[in-house]
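Database export, one record per block. Field names are fixed; values are copied verbatim from the stored entry.
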Amino acid sequence: MSDINEVGATAFFIAGIREQEKDREHPLFEDPYAEWFVNDEIRAKVRQVFTALPEGMELVRYRSGLFDDIIRREIGNGMRQVVILGSGFDMRPQVFQADGVRFCDVDQDAVLAFKGRVLEAHGVTPCAGIPCNYLEVDLAAKLVEAGFDPDAPMLIVWEGNTMYLPEELIHGFLNRLREGIRSFRIAFDFFARSVIDRTTGDENITATTDAFENTLKVKWLTGFDDLSVLEERTGLKAVELGSLLDFGKRAAPDYPTDIPQLELYLYGIMSHGEG
């Protein structure tokens, strides 16, 4: 499919997973828009990949539900600016639209352009978008150009990114955010170091990690056991730490008890300029 070649497979895969959620007995989230980005070829590719990696499907499902939960909660607590990094075909700006709440998609130009064409074909105006590699630009300045207020609180959603980045890039990016934005919370996911280093002692976890990387032709580089290193290196304050397993116990009556990765797939929320 030429669109995959142009845009990249990841955004289509995630949309394909999110589309299937509506057929679950106990769905973790709602995304009535995901089907706009999926066709039979995408569905076949998703089935092919996750037939070989069923744990991967569950991790993405629970991660999606978790971030939906965080966004819903933060908006409910008064957050009015939400920035989604590496947004892909994320439709949370539509799912969680509310009076006075502004969203911004940040991703490569080809991704945002394709997404914009799909939305406009369905009569939906895209939210603000910043086409860039967020690691290579002054994101705070770009947000100001897009009409966002750097002095007002902001939620930054950083889903499914950190494990692919060298640790120094993570530190540098967070420090630039701290320098350019007066008040924000950033929510992100990461694996425990033992998953990345293959030192869990669980052969199934190691085999699944290897299979994921080999199948999708990616490499996991960085993991954290807690948020202390990031606090030390960035000056941000850790305000929440948990795992996908914690979320599953809280939100899903049928959460899978046979996927040990859920306990080692972590999430954190860090803040700057609060209080």
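Remark 1: Residues 58-272 form a domain with the Rossmann fold fold (CATH 3.40.50.150).
Remark 2: The beta strands are 81-85, 102-107, 128-131, 154-158, 184-191, 237-243, 265-272.
End of record.
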